[in-house]
Structures are given as C-alpha cells and as structure tokens.
TrEMBL record:
It holds the Pfam family LBP_C. GO terms for biological process: carbohydrate metabolic process. NCBIfam families: 1,3-beta-galactosyl-N-acetylhexosamine phosphorylase (TIGR02336). Keywords: Glycosyltransferase, Transferase. Residues 440-664 form the Lacto-N-biose phosphorylase central domain. One of its GO terms (molecular function) is 1,4-alpha-oligoglucan phosphorylase activity. Residues 5-432 form the Lacto-N-biose phosphorylase-like N-terminal TIM barrel domain. Residues 669-720 form the Lacto-N-biose phosphorylase C-terminal domain. The lineage of its organism: Bacteria, Bacillati, Actinomycetota, Actinomycetes, Bifidobacteriales. It comes from the Bacteria. The gene is gnpA. It comes from Alloscardovia theropitheci. This is 1,3-beta-galactosyl-N-acetylhexosamine phosphorylase.
Amino acid sequence: MSTTGRFTIPSEENFAQETQRLAELWGADAVRNSDGTHLDESVLSLGKKIYSAYFPTRAHNEWITLHMDETPQVYLLSNRVLAVGEDVVINLMESFYEEQLSVNYDADPHRYWEVIDRTTGEVVDPINWSVDKESGTVTIHSAQRMHEYTVSFLAYIIWDPVEMYNHLTNDWGDKEHEIPFDIYHEATREFVFDTFHKWLEDNPHVDVVRFTTFFYQFTLLFDNKHREKVVDWFGSACTVSPKALDDFEKQYGYRLRAEDFIDEGSYNSAWRIPRKPQRDWNDFLTTFVRANVKRLADDSHAHGKEAMMFLGDQWIGTEPYKDGFDELGLDAVVGSVGDGTTLRMISDIPGVRYTEGRFLPYFFPDTFYEGNDPSIEGLDNWRKARRAILRSPISRMGYGGYLSLAAKFPKFVDTVTHIADEFRTIHEYTHGVAAEPALTVAIVNCWGKMRSWMAYTVAHALPNKQTHSYYGILEALSGMRVDVRFISFDDILNNGIDDDIDVIITGGPVDTAYSGGDIWDNPRLSEIIREWVYMGGAFVGVGEPSSRDKNGRFFQLADILGVDEERFHTLSVDKYFPKTVESHEHFITADIPQGCEIDFGEPILNTYPINEDLTVLSARSGEIQLAANEYGQGRGVYLSGLPYCAINARLLERILFYASHKEDKYEAWSSTNPECEVAHYPAEKLFCVINNTDVVQTTDVKRADGKVETIELAPSSLVWRKE
C-alpha cells in the first residue's frame, strides 16, 4: 500500500527540518501555511505541492484604515428597555464588544435603523426618536409606559472575527487587529482584485490558492465580556451595507427593513421558517458573491494555479449546494471535519474536481498543552469521519494549525501516521468509489438541497441540547448504507415524490424550518405524502413532524404516524396506550441489548396514540418515543428524537428497512455488532468492517450468499475482506 500522497501538512517559519520529518512520516505531498504564518524557503524547496492561505478581505489595514466606511456591516439589536416614563434612553453598544463593532452614524439612522415597540410590534415613527452620537444612545420620546423598546442599528465590523478568535485563542498580544473590508464598494473591490493579481505574480511558487474564504463572514458577534453572543454558521447578518440595501430595492422593487435581518432577535437563524425577504437577500447576495468568486478563480487559473475554497469563515454567499456553484470554476473545496455529517457536507459538494477534509484536532494550544493527549481526539475524529468517507469519499485529508505544537506529542504523531496510511488504503482499495447503498432516503424540510448535510446545525459540528435529538439523525445517516438526498416541501408540492425514494424523513420542533410551520396550511402537501405512503411508501417523523395546530390535529400527518401531541385542548378525551412490544419481539428493536434504555434525547411531551392498532415500541411517562403504524400498503414510524450513538444508528437503520418493507434485505452486508459497520464494494469484490470504538470488538458479517464470517477488530481498526 502507498505511504505517500493525498495528505496536506501545515508548516510555519523556522520549522523546515521538522516539517520534512513529519511530512515523510505522514506521507504528505502538499504543505500549507496557517493563519498568521509563512512558509520558509527551505520548506518551499521540499518538492511538495504548495498551498497558500489567501484572505481576500483582510490583512491590508493600510487600505481599509483610509476607508473605514467600507468595512462589512451588520444590523445589531439593542437590549430591550422598559419604558417607565415618557422618554426611554437606550445604550446601543451596551452588550456588544466595542473592539469588534462600531456604530455606523455615517448613513442616516432615520432611514436605515428601526425603533420597535416590542410589546405591540409596531415600528416607532422616526420623528419620535433621536440619536446622540457622543453618548452612543437613542432616546425614544412619548413612549408608552410599561412597554419594551429596542433599536435595530447598523454597525461596522472593525475586527475580522476569525482573526480575532485566533488572536484571543493564541494570545497574540499586541499584534495589530486585522480590519475586514466589504467588496460591495467599488473602490475596495478593485483594490481586492488588484492586490490579488499582484500577489499571484509575486508568488510563483504557490500551486494552490486556498481562499480562506471569500468576502462575508458567517454571523459571529461577541459581547462586552469578549464571549460569543451570536453564532450562526449560516447567518448572513454580516453582509449588509446602505449601498447594497439601496441596490436591492432597485432590483427587487421593495425595501428591506432592519427587522428583516434582526428577525425578532433570531438574526435569521436557519431554524426560522425562511421568509421572502430572507430568501431574496440570499439570492441577491449569492449572485454578487459568486460573480466575484469567479473572477478570483479565473485569475488564479490564468497564473497557472488551482483555486480552492475553504468551506468556513467568509463562506457566506457561495452556497455550494445551490444551483450554479459548478459554474464558478473552483477546483476544490476544503472544509473542517468535525464528524460524519460535516464530512458529508464537504464530500457531497458538486461541481469541483476534488474535495479535502481538514481533520481535528486543530494544532492550537487549547488542545496541545502539557498533560493532554491529543491522540484521543484525533482518533475519535477519524472514527466519526471514516464511516462517512466509506459512503462518500473525500479525495484528500490534512490538518491545520501550528505544526511545532503537534511535533511535541509523539503519540499524536504516530496516530496521524496510522490515520493517513489508512485513508490512502481506503482509496487504493476502492478507487474513490462509494460503498454500495441499500436504500434511498430523502430528508425533507423548508431548505431542501440548499442545506444538504447542514440541517439542524447552529455552529459547525457543535450540536447543543436543543438540536442533538435531530442532528443525530444526520450523523447516523452519514455513515449508513443508504443514499441520502435533501428536498424541500416546495419540491414535493411542485414535483411530487421521486419514484426511487424509499423513505422520507422529516421533523423538528414546531414552527421551525425543519417541521415546516405554515407550509402545512396547504392541504395539497398532506395529500401528496398520504397518497405516496398509502401506496407503499415509508414515512419517518421525528420530534414534532408536520406540526401545525389546526382542524383538530397538531401533527397534520398523525394518521400516517399513528401518533399526535396533546395541546391541552382535548384533555377531557381519554387516550389509551396499547401494550409496549418487547424489543426482542420486533424487527426495529431487535438489536437493542436486554436492559438497555434507548436515548431519545430531549423529550417531546404529551405524545399519544391516535388508535389502538399502533405498534408502540417505547413509551415513557405517558409519552410515545417510538412507534410504527401500518398505513394502506405503506408504513409510518414516529421517533421523538435520536441523538447519535452506535445503538441509535442501528435503531434508525432498522427503522428505514422496516418502514420500506425491505426487512428481507437487511442482513446482507450488515454487522451483528452495532459498534461495527460493513461497507460493500461489489465492483471491487471487496467489503470492509470498521470498529467505531477504542476497544476490541467482535462481530459476525453475513454476506449476500448467506455465508457468515466472524471478525475480531482491534480498537479503531478497519479490516478488508474479499467476497
């Protein structure tokens, strides 16, 4: 097996000898610089492919300090203030970090800001409020006593959020703050392209321009205690400017309000049901961003260099899953791999020649410190990603950060050596082809394809208490023997359900983009799904699927699921629960160990059977966690939630096979041990078994011809077998 290639190593100044040593150990064929570092001439002469991080909209304070009105801007929401008299004074920056953000007084506040009575929701007439620049306050006159008021105001972003994070994390002390700039302004835009063109000419040694990233940072705002205040990896809050707002009005025929960005304090979270202004702004922004990304890619190619996009930092407006991304001319996309879901977010991107994963841990002092063992995180990260790689391979892998830190940990160095070799072996055995799927599964929400592998996320690969019950579904699917596609409710309304889809999964909390909200007011949606399931389709609902309180139902597809949620209107109507089926008695729960209590995540309260024919597989404290329902020739399955773990991934896999009436196809190329998974490559006449734990595991694998093989796997190992 090859011990070289498909690996990118980070390096830094004055570290050439160790870079060469580690590059040989890890089989690196490419070397990159990290934020705040440069590559020595001796590193450049190692004969490796050279990646250079390039930041189009920062690191040129000599320009932007002369054009401070051309930094990116953001609408901020002040604290709510209670009116106890006729005048209400609101301190604009009271809860924001003034080293990051500065109020924009240059554009007319009475044209671009909004003061809102948050008790009534009414916009306060601009004649009834005034701005004091000296004190940084807004005074509301003739306020309604005991009403709460807010100001939505424009602010300049005066410290690049990512450089700021790196600065604070690495204690860069007196290093000059890098000020970002907004290419929507013509003079700054031309400066960016002229500067890039000159950089290309001055750096003939660079093979790959690693754009980190392009123009607009995802929403990342800090409070006055230097803590993260608003973090939304999909947020486009930091993309506004008076000029862009005015141009939008000319193009779309209506004017956006400050509230269209503030969105009642949600800052247009991807969890909110997307509204027309939000969708239109996304289209407007994407059109602008992509046109300028193409200019950068074309210029890179004209100088004989590849153009690579980092899926992170200033990625907003690129929208890799939106139609047309393949027209930008980018050669590659690289992204941070936090788990299987984020691996698939990178590997499934269409329209580029190759994809690359930047694995964890990042070589920063918050992980590489005396007494810690980074190899634990390294192997955990690899195990999560590996199962997804088998289903949708990335072309390359690597790490980021400061190599001098990683070199101090020999055990970690050995761990990466093993991971890199195993990654290359997967490619050599499979030739980069995905393992054979057994089913096709569609995830349905308001966003559809545009948010492929991005659903249920707030911050990149960091599910929290409110999201993990849903995010776990994606993580389980990321390494499962299924094809996964993402479609929207509108896709179903406009096009129906594709014939090759075996199972539909939908769900999320009520009134979110993932459960659908008022989309269920259209009866046609229910009609299409009911018809499809009734004729043999499979429908899995999670959390509060199809939730919309109307016509005597909360789950609008309760008839398919056999489950609804009590909303305290029918407490006088008794609910009767059928006896729970023992786990060993049903196909879905057959792999649940005796005495094991399934983790369904955060509870969905007051769910109950709507008929006594429902097959209840788990019910606790008067709520349904798991149930199966016959519906015509099809089946519905209800899940209250499913955080990711091996047992839960196995449970979901069995749900999918059961719901689609394909139980007879389940055993072939499956593992009897949920901690192990099997990937089958019929074209290569190979299969592999992976151990997703850090302890020894044993499993039986049943082949398609019925033969059973018992395999023992070392911790974290992968074993190949011929058919």
